[in-house]
Design brief:
With 169 residues, the chain is α+β, with helices and mostly antiparallel strands. The chain has 5 helices and 7 strands, in the order βαααβββαβαββ. A 7-stranded mixed sheet has the order 1-2-3-4-5-7-6, sandwiched between helices.
């Protein structure tokens, strides 16, 4: 049975740069994220990311902190135009903390935060079809499967399915 590791969610700080770069430089993580997530991740990339996050009010993304170290990220990003009542959720976690209930609980907290702080009715996530672990944590956090788009993602020289999960206010 999975036991949850203790963590906190907090805004990113420039002092997180070393742990951000340390944990983000993992091909197993970047292989399951869009190409906007740099690999390898440099200090310059990390500083740029943190400065962008510091500019948002209310915050859109948080550091996942375990034992006083930023070990991952999670965020909720309100969409625009006709999709303005929707927000996309994204997340990643240091490999050493996988399978300990951290992401499931972080998703639940971030959903609550998103519905409270943004004028949205739906939060969705788009895990790759090959990322079964991410699909499972979304389901554990209350998200429901909505759609599967066959071979819509092109990552690392191969086509992958894109899966949509969502939760409603």
């Amino acid at each position: 049975m999975e036991t949850s590791t203790s963590f906190i969610l907090r805004p990113w700080q420039i002092s997180d740069i070393d742990s951000l770069v340390k944990y983000a430089n993992n091909k197993k993580i970047s292989d399951n994220l869009t190409n906007a997530f740099p690999n390898p991740d440099s200090c310059d990339d990390g500083i740029k990311f943190i400065k962008i996050q510091e500019s948002y009010n209310p915050a859109k993304a948080f550091a996942i902190v375990i034992d006083n170290e930023a070990c991952g990220a999670i965020g909720v990003f309100q969409q625009t135009d006709i999709h303005e009542k929707n927000a996309e959720m994204g997340y990643w976690l240091a490999e050493k903390h996988w399978g300990k209930g951290v992401i499931t609980n972080a998703i639940k907290q971030t959903v609550e935060y998103g519905f409270k702080n943004f004028e949205i009715n739906r939060i969705f996530a788009r895990p790759f079809g090959s990322n079964l672990a991410s699909q499972k944590v979304l389901e554990k956090a209350g998200f429901k499967f909505e759609a599967k788009f066959k071979n819509t993602i092109y990552k690392n020289g191969q086509f992958l399915d894109e899966i949509y999960y969502a939760i409603y206010k």
